[in-house]
Amino acid sequence: MGSKNTSEKPIGVIGAGSFGTAVSNILAEKNQRVILYARTAEKAALLNSTRESSGHKLHDHIEVTNDLEYIGTSCDVIFPVVPSANFRAMMKELAPFLRPYHILIHGTKGFDLNVDLKKIDAQNPLSREHVRTMSEVIKEESSVVRIGCLAGPNLAREISEKKPAATVVASHFDEVIRVGQNLLKNDRFLIYGSNDLIGIELCGILKNIIAVGAGTIAGLELGENAKALFISRGLVEMVHIGKALGGNAEAFLGLAGVGDLVATSSSHLSRNFTVGNRLAKGETIDQIIESMEEVAEGVKTIRIINELSQTYKVRCPITETLYRIINQEMTVGDAHKYLMKFPFRAEIDFM
Ligand SMILES: NC(=O)C1=CN([C@@H]2O[C@H](COP(=O)(O)OP(=O)(O)OC[C@H]3O[C@@H](n4cnc5c(N)ncnc54)[C@H](OP(=O)(O)O)[C@@H]3O)[C@@H](O)[C@H]2O)C=CC1
Ligand SMILES: O=C(CO)COP(=O)(O)O
Prior knowledge:
CATH architecture of the largest domain: 3-Layer(aba) Sandwich
Order of helices and strands: EHEHEEEHEHEEEHEHEHEHHHHHHHHH
Keywords: Cytoplasm, Lipid biosynthesis, Lipid metabolism, NAD, NADP, Nucleotide-binding, Oxidoreductase, Phospholipid biosynthesis, Phospholipid metabolism
Largest sheet: 8 strands, mixed
CATH superfamily of the largest domain: NAD(P)-binding Rossmann-like Domain
Pathway: Membrane lipid metabolism; glycerophospholipid metabolism
Protein name: Glycerol-3-phosphate dehydrogenase [NAD(P)+]
Helix content: 40-55%
CATH topology of the largest domain: Rossmann fold
Enzyme class: oxidoreductase
Bound molecules: NADPH dihydro-nicotinamide-adenine-dinucleotide phosphate, 1,3-dihydroxyacetonephosphate
């Protein structure tokens, strides 16, 4: 960190949604001053006066601001936690206030897309060139070098209720992992480290697809055996597409992969699971999105992976079937009957 002393400086968090607030509270609990960025001045003022954000109480050590320059100049370590659809725009605004000494550890579980999916067809297929993880966006948009991500089974509501959990801080830099661990760990929040940044990011992104599917199983009341079957096959699909996009299989077998997959595929606290559940009850994807206040990243990810699986010729029957459900080309009931007939080969073919 050059001559700067991290512990004396506040920590920045960008995005005052469910997870950004939960992360801010974890940081603040450790006697750490936190500056939390809210998108509008009105929201920042409201949060500062009500001391509540996204239904979570705000710790006294958290100051809410609408000033990105203030965050950039006050904080050496910043946790960006905004939905993937807005991440690049946020980075463009923040970048003028970032320097190579900054450390950014993001908590976003979605892709950045630099092309309109409507323009994608057989002649112009979607490729990895069109799709970025958030660490890649940070690198492209700023001078920051030391980049990391935070991913694991971290349902924000449970974290706010101070229930035990663990996460993975991933970075190519051990220093970033150490900083993340020191800032976040407490007696009920364990922090593991990984150098497989892309692999860990892909785990968090891809599990959202399977969580949507698991929600449909719960919605149809198909039972625990079916859910276990779906999660297991979902993990295999995550590994196959994850490897095609630059991840290693090992990451998927850990906390950020199978751990987060199990948590989000089993809980009504997961927005992605909830989307699937509501699809199974007969709502359309437009109706669901329209009425949801929080982001369910999996819907966009289903569309992206459906295209990428074709480009890279990876068998992704679950993603393709979910894509047909959200496009109203197939009912949820028919989708599950179809998947039960799908000709799978070896059970585990990625080791
Ligand atoms: N909730 C969870 O349990 C977890 C979520 N995540 C991931 O974290 C990310 C955020 O999720 P979550 O916090 O739950 O989402 P929410 O939907 O609860 O909140 C998103 C927040 O981001 C803010 N925001 C949007 N665009 C910008 C921007 N350009 N600049 C600053 N703030 C912005 C929104 O502000 P506004 O209110 O103004 O729209 C809103 O407060 C997602 O990628 C999600 O997958 C990861 C782990 C757990
Ligand atoms: O990623 C999460 C928990 O680890 C949150 O999942 P949802 O976005 O589905 O709520």
